[in-house]
């Protein structure tokens, strides 16, 4: 294994050797297999979560007769178009331990995958702008420390030291301080998908691209397989992990979900020299920002706030985000914006995800990640693989059940806005 | 995106508040069972294409509207007052 890793896997030595020999020794990261007639488990959706699920099914549970079916190309969905923030600063029981678990997986991910996902714990600072907000963040910080994560409450001077470029004199939302989560940061989104894909493939999982699921076959209340653009494929168990398309795919099994699809936009500037070291969030102004390793300032704000299946947003939100950016960080006005784009996301009524079995035998759903599912990628895959393999929820995802909406018990309303669709 | 208010005419999206799918108008009977209430409050069809939605013309006449909007193209094909739609 040790030698194999040096010659086939990634290592400093390998990079050096390839560098000296014209980089001719690199091979494709995964095979391109044709679908087999039957698998033990089919995962619908080759995004970050689906690929992570496949990786953990193989590496943790030894289940490798698995296919991941992707209608486009691997990593072409939201995993490839998000703003890459990774953090564990949640507060409610249920969410706390889940995101805490996920962050710990991130911290060992590069070793686990033998892949550089550029996980960068550059620290996140959530700004606050009133006494009430300070109290709420102090409480959240205490909860984060209690769950074994890290948090530091910065006062105004403390923020000024870390983020001297903010406009501290602004009158609209004066800066009172910030909650500093040092283990938070970013990761290279594409690399996360590729690393999970390569690992799952090398363990025998079939990653099948250009294969859209068009139907789910159910007999006597149990799944039998799927219909796809590349023919019918049988399976004993099927996991739906399709991010913003959950309602569409669930409808193939006659199910309705507690989900509305919404658009979230993001923006990036031209590449600049390093100027923003952290991830900074400005909740009151609906704006957040970090700088990518290529130098572009990556930022975004709120949803467009109405149902949408268009992979682009509308201008009012872009205008709002840019206004907030200029209020907080006037220097950003000198940067040229290169691109903006949108991703379709599952919005659940309480803003929290669902990882559960359904009433159909062998059918499982992993959905409702809203705008925060990137940081969940390892945790989601890990706990969903556990559920698929054992039929029992993983302890850290035990509260992410579908029935919480019917019973009202265990609603995970992190933002305390109520369990109502248009508020999340 | 612009929405045609039946009272005020076509206006900028920013004048309106969004409440979601117009299923809110089909309130179950008070003694309906938990499944019916879950359906009403939380479950949605959420399919791409035409959707009847509730919008309030907050910064205009204040009326609640049922707007039929395509969620893929954002094209609006109808708008009426809730008071008329409910009839
Ligand atoms: C602009 C933006 C910014 C964001 N920023 C952050 C952030 O900073 N931090 C954070 O934690 N989260 C963030 N998110 C949320 C995060 O990106 C998502 O929650 C997460 O990526 C969703 O999981 P996924 O990676 O598996 O989804 P995806 O990559 O979208 O995977 C789903 C896959 O399913 C496939 N699929 C759909 N239907 C079918 C079918 N019928 N058959 C076969 N395949 C199908 C799709 O093609 C797609 O590849 C952001 C989202 C957006 C849009
Ligand atoms: Zn009006």
Can you give a write-up of this model?
Chain B: Keywords: Oxidoreductase. Chain B: Its EC number is 1.5.3.1. Chain B: InterPro entries: SoxD (IPR006279), SoxD_sf (IPR038561). Chain B: This is Sarcosine oxidase subunit delta. The complex is a heterodimer of chains A (424) and B (87). With 424 residues, chain A is of the alpha/beta class. In chain A, 29% of the residues lie in helices and 26% in strands. Chain A has twelve helices and 18 strands. In chain A, strands 1, 2, 8, 9, 10, 11, 17 and 18 form an eight-stranded mixed beta sheet that branches. The radius of gyration of chain A is 22 Å and the shape is globular. Chain A starts with a helix and ends in a 17-residue tail after the last helix. Chain B is globular and about 40 Å long. By secondary structure, chain B is mainly beta. The mean pLDDT of chain B is 95. Bound molecules: flavin-adenine dinucleotide and zinc ion (ZN). Flavin-adenine dinucleotide (FAD) is lined by residues 44-50, 69-72, 76-79, 81-85, 212-213, 241-243, 245, 249, 264-266, 300, 343, 345, 369, 371-375 of chain A. Zinc ion is lined by residues 5, 7-8, 57, 60-61, 63 of chain B.
Shape of chain B: globular
Distance from N terminus to C terminus of chain A (CA atoms, Å) equals: 47 Å
Strand content of chain A: 25-35%
Got a strand count of chain A? 18
CATH class of one domain in chain B: Alpha Beta
DSSP strand content of chain B: 35-45%
The computed structural class of chain B is: mainly beta
Helices and strands of chain B, in order, run as EEEHEEEH
* CATH class category label of the largest domain in chain A: Alpha Beta
Radius of gyration of chain A: 22 Å
In angstroms, what separates the terminal alpha carbons of chain B? 28 Å
Helix content of chain B: 10-25%
Can you count the beta strands of chain B? 6
In DSSP terms, counting alpha (H) and pi (I) runs of 4 or more, how many helices of chain A? 12
Q: Tell me, what's the shape of chain A?
A: globular
Biggest pleated-sheet summary of chain A: 8 strands, mixed
Q: How confident overall, as mean pLDDT of chain A?
A: 95
Q: Give the biggest beta sheet of chain B.
A: 4 strands, antiparallel
CATH architecture of one domain in chain B: 2-Layer Sandwich
**Largest interface here, residues on each chain?**
A-B, 25 and 28 residues
């Amino acid at each position: 294994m040790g030698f194999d890793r040096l010659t086939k896997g990634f290592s400093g030595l390998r990079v050096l050797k390839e560098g000296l020999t014209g980089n001719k020794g690199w091979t494709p990261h995964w095979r391109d297999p044709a679908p087999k007639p039957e698998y033990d488990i089919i995962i619908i959706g080759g995004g970050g979560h689906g690929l992570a699920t496949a990786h953990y099914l193989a590496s943790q549970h030894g289940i490798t007769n698995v296919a991941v079916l992707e209608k486009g190309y691997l990593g072409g969905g939201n995993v490839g178009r998000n703003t890459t923030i990774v953090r564990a600063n949640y507060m409610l029981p249920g969410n706390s331990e889940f995101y805490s678990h996920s962050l710990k997986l991130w911290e060992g991910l590069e070793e686990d995958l033998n892949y550089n996902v550029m996980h960068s714990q550059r620290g996140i600072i959530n700004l606050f702008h009133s006494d009430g907000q300070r109290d709420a963040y102090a409480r959240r910080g205490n909860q984060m420390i209690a769950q074994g994560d890290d948090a530091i409450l910065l006062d105004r001077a403390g923020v000024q030291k870390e983020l001297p470029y903010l406009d501290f004199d602004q009158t609209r939302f004066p800066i009172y301080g910030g909650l500093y989560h040092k283990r938070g940061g970013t990761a290279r989104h594409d690399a996360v998908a590729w690393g999970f894909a390569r690992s799952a493939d090398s363990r025998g999982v079939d990653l099948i691209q250009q294969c859209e699921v068009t139907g789910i076959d159910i007999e006597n209340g149990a799944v039998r397989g799927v219909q796809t653009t590349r023919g019918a494929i049988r399976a004993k168990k099927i996991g739906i992990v399709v991010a913003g398309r959950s309602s569409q795919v669930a409808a193939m099994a006659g199910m309705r979900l507690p989900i509305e699809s919404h658009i979230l936009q993001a923006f990036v500037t031209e590449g600049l020299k390093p100027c923003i070291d952290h991830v900074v969030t400005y909740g009151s102004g609906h704006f957040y920002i970090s700088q990518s390793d290529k130098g572009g300032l990556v930022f975004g704000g709120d949803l467009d706030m109405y149902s949408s299946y268009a992979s682009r947003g509308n201008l009012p939100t872009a205008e709002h985000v840019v206004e907030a950016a200029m209020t907080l960080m006037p220097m950003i006005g000198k940067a040229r914006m290169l691109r903006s784009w949108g991703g379709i996301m599952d919005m659940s009524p309480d803003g929290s995800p669902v990882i559960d079995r359904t009433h159909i035998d062998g059918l499982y759903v992993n959905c409702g990640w809203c705008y925060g599912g990137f940081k969940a990628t390892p945790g989601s895959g890990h706990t969903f693989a556990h559920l698929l393999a054992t039929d029992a929820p993983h302890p850290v995802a035990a509260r992410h059940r579908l029935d919480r909406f019917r019973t009202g018990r265990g609603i995970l309303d992190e933002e305390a806005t109520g369990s109502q669709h248009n508020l999340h | 995106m612009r929405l045609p208010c039946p009272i005020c005419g076509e206006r900028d999206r920013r004048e309106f508040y969004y409440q979601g799918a117009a299923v809110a108008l089909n309130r179950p009977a008070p003694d309906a069972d938990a499944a019916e209430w879950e359906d009403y409050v939380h479950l949605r069809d959420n399919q791409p294409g035409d959707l009847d939605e509730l919008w309030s013309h907050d910064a205009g006449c204040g009326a609640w509207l049922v707007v039929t909007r395509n969620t893929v193209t954002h094209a609006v094909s109808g708008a009426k007052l809730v008071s008329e739609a409910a009839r």
